[in-house]
Design goal:
Transposase_20, Transposase, 9 strands, alpha/beta, 5-stranded mixed beta sheet, transposase activity, Transpos_IS110, Nucleotidyltransferase, domain 5, Helix Hairpins, 3 domains, two-stranded antiparallel sheet
Length: 466
């Protein structure tokens, strides 16, 4: 019978720690450390080859934690070794490894211990580990992340530019209430302060694209009456440099986005784009996070992954803390939040759902969170059934769900004993039981149920009525 051994790998920058355990969590190969170099990879291959030669009827299950990219070299090398060795490789979530380690009450964490924690997690939770999965979105993810980084830098520079304009050229800000226009940035590159803009010629300002003669005249007149408190050369140079840098970032973002759209010919991305509110960039972002819908057995699992599932605390009579969990990484929720904001404006069906939640008295942010969850359910259904967006499908599902809720359901946890108002319960529980007793329509039991009620292996008999 083939025996499995578990190779736990804790990856650090430039090196990694390794350990091999058996199915009983017993150490078979003690901790060793190798560098992330050509020699280190070759040494690992020799160690694994010698180990499998010692245990010929065995298979090595290896796993690395997702550590932001440091694990990729080891993962690629081990994947290449699968053709020559009895080896399976997986990338696992460090969140699960961390909680599994806490459950063992271990207090001291080292690189050696972390490698063992990875191996023990594979043994304790085999259903959570998926081996030999190929990441088809690796290159797309890098370009998508690069565009996000450029966008973040642009926003930071825009915020800094706005604060400087308030003291150097405040009258221009009235044209930037929604966003910083292209003509505004080019104007600031030539005339960064109100003092310089007031001395500009009308013909020179009109040469800037999208600036008409009337707009140029207003800009110059407003600059002559400016209340700006700063007009020194240093401030002017900083504003000019910020404007040029923002223009360069805009051009680079447009270029990278076009390349992403042209190179991303993925069926799932085209499918998600049928939902009004999801563009190419958002669709790629969703697929980068989801990878494959088969990873999630239900939409609740997907909602938990995104951290948008509701959580609450119920203990005894109390129910509290009902809110969005916000567990896990915040980037997927940020992406879903932006999709929901856009869909509320441009998608009639989502706009309708948002209005329904507001009519129920929900705050705007809570209603937006409910919309995020709804969009995720729609996305899951589209990917699961390989079907384009159709709001009528969700309308039918909502109506069916509403009918099920309206049907009276018995409390399954009280199937062996009905609620007893004479039990020594709290006042809140007693009030609840009395209300439930009034609302229920009591039916006379049939003859069979009077005779016997089975509870597992025991039976309780009622006396026959005379």
């Amino acid at each position: 019978m083939q025996q499995n051994f578990y190779l736990g790998i804790d990856v650090s920058k430039g090196y990694a720690d390794f350990i091999i355990l058996d199915e009983n969590k017993k150490v078979i190969e003690d901790n060793f450390q190798l560098d992330d170099t050509f020699d280190g990879h070759n040494k690992l291959y020799k160690i694994l080859s010698g180990f499998l030669a010692k245990y010929p009827d065995s298979n090595i299950l290896a796993a690395v934690e997702s550590t932001g990219g440091y694990e990729n070299n080891w993962l690629k090398f081990l994947s290449a070794c699968q053709s020559k060795l009895q080896l399976s490789v997986a990338r696992i979530n460090p969140f699960g490894v961390s909680y599994n380690s806490k459950a063992t009450l271990k207090r001291i964490i080292t690189d050696k211990q972390s490698a063992r924690n990875v191996a023990e997690y594979m043994i304790s939770h085999p259903e959570k580990v998926q081996y030999n999965n190929q990441d088809y979105y690796a290159s797309v993810r890098r370009q998508w992340t690069f565009i996000k980084m450029l966008t973040k830098q642009k926003v930071q520079l825009l915020n800094q530019l706005e604060s400087l304009l308030y003291i150097a050229n405040p009258e221009v800000l009235q044209y930037c209430s929604n966003k910083m226009n292209l003509w505004t940035l080019k104007l600031l590159s030539k005339y960064p302060t109100a003092k310089e803009l007031a001395k500009a010629r009308l013909s020179s300002v009109c040469k800037i694209p999208y600036i008409t003669e009337s707009l140029a005249n207003d800009l110059i007149n407003n600059a002559r009456k400016s209340v700006a408190s700063s007009d020194d050369k240093t401030t002017a140079e900083v504003i000019r440099a910020l404007g040029e840098q923002i223009l360069q970032l805009r051009r680079l973002i447009v270029l990278q986005t076009k390349q992403l759209q042209s190179s991303c010919n993925i069926a799932e991305v085209e499918l998600l784009k049928s939902f009004r509110g999801i563009g190419t960039f958002s669709a790629v972002g969703l697929m980068i996070e989801i990878l494959s819908v088969e990873r999630f057995s239900s939409v609740k699992k997907l909602a938990s992954f995104f951290g948008v599932h509701p959580v609450f605390k119920q203990s005894g009579d109390g129910l509290s803390g009902f809110k969005m969990s916000k567990r896990g990484r915040k980037q997927p929720r940020q992406l879903l939040f932006n999709i929901a904001r856009f869909a509320i404006v441009h998608n009639p069906y989502i706009k309708e759902i948002y209005a329904i939640h507001l009519q129920k008295g929900m705050p705007k942010m809570a209603a937006l969170g409910a919309v995020m969850y709804k969009i995720l359910r729609i996305v899951y259904g589209m990917l699961k059934h390989n079907r384009q967006y159709d709001p009528e499908i969700d309308r039918a599902n909502r109506a069916k769900h509403k009918d099920n809720i309206n049907k009276a359901k018995e409390d399954y946890t009280r199937r062996y004993q009905p609620m007893d108002i004479t039990a020594p319960v709290s006042r809140r529980q007693l009030k609840k039981r009395k209300q439930q007793e009034k609302s229920q329509i009591l039916k006379p039991p049939d003859a069979e149920s009077k005779k016997k009620i089975f509870t597992g292996s025991d039976s309780y008999c009622f006396p026959e009525e005379t």
